[in-house]
TrEMBL record:
PANTHER family: CEPHALOSPORIN-C DEACETYLASE. It holds the Pfam family AXE1. The active site is at S188 (nucleophile), D274 (charge relay system), H308 (charge relay system). This is Acetylxylan esterase. Substrate binds at Y92.
Length: 331
């Protein structure tokens, strides 16, 4: 893929205005409070996975509206005391998968909570899911972006982002987890959910967001000629009179708006040939990160020749270094 977005020197200075509703904070405060009022304590059941060095719990916690969300909690089998935890969210279409897929963080002495994504986990690329989304929708394009698109109270990603924020509550209450050292991570859709979780919750000490989805959504819809963003274009091609209403709803789930409220130290990554999540949309959110959260330390790794796969194992290595330094107090 050839370069198609802004050149790097312009990306590094790209700070566009992004629509944010006046009631953004009130909307999210009310949404989270309503869901927390319906929440129950998380349940963690030990499971035998055949992994001799990793202990695994099958977790169920309360998400949006008190609805149950599944997750896997994995930790080193020999761990005696509470551990830092990486709370991770999955990419578009993926679920929590199987426990054998999540051994990286336990192998370095850190607990790991792999959170399921409601209504997803049958994308065909692996990572099966176990959490239904019991909500219906008005007319919508296939996929998730236009489910409930005419009202933020009904939009799919409001539910998913509420689940993400409440996953932090659950992680802090789980056995063997050190509640004061929660790190949030994700790539693509998972990156957007991680950014939202950090913007909505003040407990996490760090964020790791890779090739994040749902950033500067209106620009992404104009740039991307393919799904998931093409779901919005296809919807508006039919509903020609709903353009501003659609983008108003999406402004509540735009990760660039959530990023402004981030308070945790952050490691981001971007791929300059990413045709799924354009680099300018990532930079738009990255530059806004922490504006309202005290301007925490942040940095971004750039992969000039990669598409949506981003940095792959090279970025994982950067994350391991970041977490090691963070937990040692050196970041």
């Amino acid at each position: 893929m050839a370069l198609y977005d802004l050149p790097l020197e312009q990306l590094e200075a790209y700070r566009p205005e992004i629509a944010e509703p006046d009631d953004f904070d009130a909307f999210w405060s009310t949404t989270l409070a309503q869901s927390r009022s319906a929440a129950r304590a998380p349940v963690a059941v030990p499971v035998d996975t055949g992994l001799a060095r990793v202990k695994v719990h099958d977790v169920s916690f309360s998400g949006y509206g008190g609805e149950p969300i599944k997750a896997w909690l994995s930790a080193p089998a020999e761990a005696a005391g509470p551990l830092p935890v990486v709370v991770q969210f999955q990419g578009y279409g993926g679920g929590r998968g199987l426990p054998v897929e999540h051994t990286l963080w336990p192998s370095v002495g850190v607990a790991h909570l792999m959170v399921d994504t409601r209504g997803q986990g049958a994308a065909g690329w692996g990572s099966v899911g176990d959490t239904p989304d019991p909500h219906g929708s008005g007319p919508a394009h296939s996929g998730f972006l236009t489910r409930g698109i005419l009202d933020p109270h009904e939009h799919y990603y409001v539910r998913a982002m509420t689940d993400a924020a409440l996953a932090i509550d659950a992680a802090a209450a789980l056995p063997g987890v050190e509640a004061s050292r929660i790190i949030v991570a994700g790539a693509s859709q998972g990156g957007a959910l991680a950014i939202a979780a950090v913007g909505l919750h003040d407990a996490p000490i760090a964020l790791m967001a890779d090739v994040a989805f749902l950033c500067h959504i209106r620009r992404a819809v104009d740039l991307v000629d393919g799904d998931p963003y093409d779901e919005v274009r296809s919807y508006l091609a039919a509903h020609r009179d709903r353009v501003e209403q659609v983008f108003h709803t999406l402004s509540y789930v735009d990760a660039a708006n959530h990023a402004r409220r981030g308070r945790a130290r952050a490691l981001w990554s971007v791929a300059l040939r990413d045709t799924t999540c354009p680099p300018s949309t990532t930079y738009a959110a990255f530059h806004r990160y922490g504006e309202l959260g005290g301007e925490p330390d942040k940095r971004i790794e750039v992969y000039p020749y990669n598409n949506h796969e981003g940095g792959g194992a090279f970025q994982i290595k950067k994350q391991l270094e970041f977490v090691t330094e963070l937990l040692a107090g050196a970041v």
